[in-house]
């Protein structure tokens, strides 16, 4: 049963990674429709639902040994720049809070600075987290220093 689950999950992950790699590489300046002023990006929850939920799950708990949880980890609640860099650059197998996760996370650098800030703010304030917001300017600053 576990092997079947792993095969299904791997197939789903491959489909997600294939779709992500087909996205444009230049950041989009805005997505969405204007609401009382300048154009806003997608809400953090909408970005999460579109790009993150398949690996990190609806409850943010991830998949053991494959995809890390987004709930109360030092990577989410700690220094913002680390998690911004993960979204911009992707991540391969790594250890987070003494647990090793083996799946590769693709880069989401095609998302706008606002959408990255929105999704990270959503994650840092959801799933039991109580960390500060991420600003688009913080994403922009790290995007220019990327790699």
Shape: globular
Helix content: 40-55%
Biggest sheet, in brief? 2 strands, antiparallel
Content-based structural category: mainly alpha
Order of helices and strands: HHHHEEHH
Report the β-strand fraction as a percent range: under 5%
Give Rg in angstroms: 15 Å
CATH superfamily of the domain at 44-144: Cytochrome c-like domain
Total helical elements: 6
Q: Span from first to last CA?
A: 40 Å
In order across it, which strands form the biggest sheet?
1-2
Poorly predicted regions are: 13-39
CATH class categorisation of the domain at 44-144: Mainly Alpha
Query: Overall pLDDT, averaged?
Result: 80
Please provide the count of β strands.
2
Protein name: Cytochrome c
InterPro entries: Cyt_c-like_dom, Cyt_c-like_dom_sf, Cytochrome_c-type_DH
GO molecular function: electron transfer activity; heme binding; metal ion binding
Keywords: Heme, Iron, Metal-binding
């Amino acid at each position: 049963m576990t092997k079947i689950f792993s095969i299904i999950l791997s197939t789903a992950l491959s489909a997600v990674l294939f779709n992500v790699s087909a996205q444009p590489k230049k950041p989009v300046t805005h997505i969405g429709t204007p609401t009382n002023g300048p154009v806003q990006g997608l809400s953090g929850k909408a970005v999460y639902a579109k790009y993150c939920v398949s690996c990190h799950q609806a409850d943010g708990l991830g998949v053991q040994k494959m995809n890390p949880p987004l709930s109360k980890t030092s990577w989410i609640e700690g220094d913002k720049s680390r998690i911004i860099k993960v979204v911009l650059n992707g991540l391969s197998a790594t250890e987070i809070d003494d647990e090793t996760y083996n799946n590769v996370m693709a880069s989401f650098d095609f998302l706008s600075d606002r959408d990255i800030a929105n999704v990270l703010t959503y994650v840092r304030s959801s799933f039991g987290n109580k960390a500060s917001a991420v600003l688009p300017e913080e994403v922009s600053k790290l995007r220019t220093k990327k790699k």
